[in-house]
Design a protein that fits this description.
It is a single chain. By secondary structure, the protein is mostly helical. It is built from 2 helices and no strands. The chain has helices spanning 3-19, 22-52. Helix 1 (3-19) packs antiparallel against helix 2 (22-52).
């Protein structure tokens, strides 16, 4: 997931805050968490590739 995924999650969360939609707010937080997990996994993969080289 990219920066746009993180921003999309933040936008969903904010929209949920404004409208009082708890489901939308939760989806936004989940999107942000997924983006962080994918980013961390990508960093680990890159480090392993550098060690192998």
């Amino acid at each position: 997931m990219s920066l746009s995924d993180k921003l999309g999650g933040k936008a969903k969360e904010a929209a949920g805050e404004i409208t009082g939609d708890d489901k939308l707010r939760a989806e936004g937080k989940a999107d942000q968490a997924a983006a962080k997990v994918k980013e961390a996994a990508t960093e680990v993969i890159d480090k392993v590739k550098n060690i192998i080289k």
